[in-house]
Amino acid sequence: MARKPKEVRRSGLPTKDEILEFIKTARVTPGKREISRAFSVKGSDRIALKQMLAEMADDGLLSGNRKGFKERGKLPPVAVIEIVARDDDGELVGEPAVWDPGEGERPRVLVLAGRGSARAGEPALGQGDRILARLTRLDEADVFGYRYEAQPIKRLPKEKRRQLGIFRTRARGGGTIDPVDRKDLKEWPIAPGDEGEAKDGDLVRFDLARAGRLGVPQARVVETLGNPQDQRQISLIAVHAHGIPDEFPNAVLAEIATLQAPKLAGRTDLRALDLVTIDPVDARDHDDAVHASPDTDPGNPGGWVVHVAIADVAHYVRPGTRLDREAQMRGNSVYFPDRVVPMLPEKISNDLCSLKEDEERACLVARMTFDRQGSKKRHTFLRAMMRSAAKLSYEEAQAAIDGRPSPKSAPLLERALKPLWAAYAALAAARDRREPLDLDLPERKILMNANGRVERVVTPERLAAHRLIEEFMIQANVAAAEALEAARAPVVYRVHDAPSREKLVALRDFLDSLELKLPGAATLRAGDFNRLLQRAKSLPVSDLVNEVVLRSQSQAEYAPENIGHFGLNLQRYAHFTSPIRRYADLLVHRSLIRALKLGAGGLADDEAGQLKDIAQSISDSERRAMAAERETTDRLIAGYLADRVGAEFAARVSGVTRSGLFVRLSDTGADGFVPAATIGDDYFRHHEAAHALIGDRTGEAYRLGDDVRVRLVEAIPMAGALRFEVLSAGTREANLRVGPKGSHRRWRGGHRRR
């Protein structure tokens, strides 16, 4: 191999190596003046130094300008780092949030952060977080290839959204970025050479780099993320927009190969019990099974013994393992119409912990005894081994009870299904006495075809089989919370606060216009809302009342402090029944195992001390998942309707703002927007208390919950955006009260037709 020739120093000038060494060790970014001063370059040699620095920049050794040079590809001592992944050892990996592609490949940084955060009281750092960090450059890359280590200084607020778009090529070079965020429907130009490796239709991450000749900001592709259409995965957009980790590190997958199958020793043998799984027809995993039988205790005539068996995920996912760290970071599975991003690898969720028909599986069981009125008398928890007697869909189980058993369900009808329905009848009576919040909220389901496109949107029938499983799961969750409280063990509760004072004031203002009343906040219960909804059924605006009551409710979350569950009207409640898809349930399993001495895999000491942080983290993950799922549904339905621009639809007003109406189509549930400026020939004002836009001249009102006819004007599938115009006239009710005692108050804004 030829040896690199030694660089010769020019008279009065430093060598290029000396300049590089000086720049590397400088405490601040040096410019030409600082370099001249450091090497005592004077007179005409300064022109030669300027030429040398230009040569070094052309050779890719330096970047910057005469005011500040740095080694090409070098990171500053302090920088904003975005955590983008975990490596095979479960360590956090970051990248600089700001990077010029001209500097070369974006360097990856090992983030020196444990399970806790840099500040007490904050959740652990995870993928998608941004930090201000102090960077240390290693003399040479470590064994894993990292050149930098980052010590977090503080966590920074998360970006509202990553800058994502769909790249479209231009014939003359470069291209444009089509929006994927319906709140920001801007198109950004890409200059030739700034498109990176993006191809037409690719989802890309971009930065706004500079202004063009006319002052228009230019975008630059930072990262190519794949083509949603090619992969038939529109959810790819939401996954990247929200920073949802969708691939498991190799070290996590390798850890699964070392997992040991559970043994019967130390477990209760329930393999002879006719436990059945009842799930959606397209379910891929089955983490709960149920059984009911009459109580043989003479002291409980007409009572029932119910078993709710849940997959023993804690046997496989132990505290502190790579698998556990990954599950905690994800927080929950995310369910899209076109795919699932699981919390746990498929080997666990769809195999080892799936309660498959006629196969032995480890489980944690809530054994509950109820009296004939459905009130729970006692409960106990077992670590057991089971064998599912059958895998039934909701429809199949319901058909058997309704007198149309299938060949699979017929043998189980008398010995398993009828006892389940009889026990449920008692529990349903107790539920009705408890009066949980009962909102009429139909759930729509998107059916996809083989090409990954929406085939149709349906509203599945709500069966007694659905309500049966739901009530059994609720009772098992209650039993778990009660058992942990009795043992003085740590609990991650599922809490739901009562509506806030501010929301109740707004709700009462609205109800006053309909002459409906609610009890005072001090005595308000979920049942009071049910009675309100029942009274509203006689009104023409009953759907409107349903919508407004829903919007007044708080959001449920996870917390180690118990405030009860307002919506379910329960004093204590924890999630126990889905540890395959929710990390909160896994924590509850571990706490039960530890508190009740049910074997290995219990809650670790360090976990118990971090429950507040973990609860906040998984609550955030849940909200992230809900937003991603909703956006994906919007994109799929917008694509489904894109070829129907100009068509008319029946719809309902689902939101009212000063800028216009949000409408929801009756047949598909698609959400769209009607700009206020396009409504009629009047000046429409927003009245917040009445949830209405009301015309000054005509008095026409468009209110939340109103049925309207709309025409589709525009569809932007990748942004999930639909724009409509309203065809129906507004209501002109003489007795429409726009505020207490008919007063006009709190008017906000207005629009004229343009």
Can you give keywords for this protein?
about 750 residues; disordered C terminus; about 25% strand; 18 helices; five-stranded antiparallel beta sheet; disordered N terminus; 34 strands; five-stranded mixed β-barrel; Arc Repressor Mutant, subunit A; OB fold (Dihydrolipoamide Acetyltransferase, E2P); alpha+beta; globular
Q: What would you note in describing this structure?
A:
The protein has 754 residues and is α+β, with helices and mostly antiparallel strands. The chain folds into six domains: 16-71, Arc Repressor Mutant, subunit A, CATH 1.10.10; 78-156, Beta Barrel (OB fold (Dihydrolipoamide Acetyltransferase, E2P)), CATH 2.40.50.140; 164-226, Beta Barrel (OB fold (Dihydrolipoamide Acetyltransferase, E2P)), CATH 2.40.50; 250-495 and 558-630, no CATH class; 501-553, no CATH class; 645-751, Beta Barrel (OB fold (Dihydrolipoamide Acetyltransferase, E2P)), CATH 2.40.50. 27% of the residues lie in helices and 26% in strands. It has 18 helices and 34 strands. The strands form ten sheets. The protein has a five-stranded mixed barrel with strand order 3-4-5-7-6. A hairpin with a 5-residue loop joins strand 3 (78-86) and strand 4 (92-96). It starts with 15 loop residues before the first helix and ends with a strand.
Question: What order do the helices and strands come in, and which of them pair?
Answer:
Layout (H helix, E strand, L loop, with lengths): L15 H10 L6 H7 L6 H14 L3 E4 L2 E4 L6 E9 L5 E5 L12 E3 L18 E8 L10 E9 L7 E6 L5 E5 L8 E3 L12 E9 L5 E8 L3 H4 L3 H7 L8 H7 L11 E2 L6 E4 L8 E7 L9 E8 L1 H4 L5 H9 L3 E2 L4 E2 L4 H7 L7 E11 L5 E12 L2 E4 H8 L11 H22 L10 E4 L5 E5 L5 H23 L6 E3 L5 H13 L12 H11 L5 H11 L4 E3 L23 H13 L9 H5 L1 H31 L6 E10 L2 E6 L5 E5 L8 E4 L4 E4 L5 E3 L3 E10 L4 E6 L20 E5 L3
Parallel strand pairs: 5-7, 13-20, 14-21
Antiparallel strand pairs: 1-2, 3-4, 3-6, 4-5, 6-7, 8-9, 8-11, 9-10, 11-12, 15-16, 16-19, 17-18, 19-20, 22-23, 24-25, 26-27, 26-32, 27-28, 29-30, 29-34, 30-31, 32-33
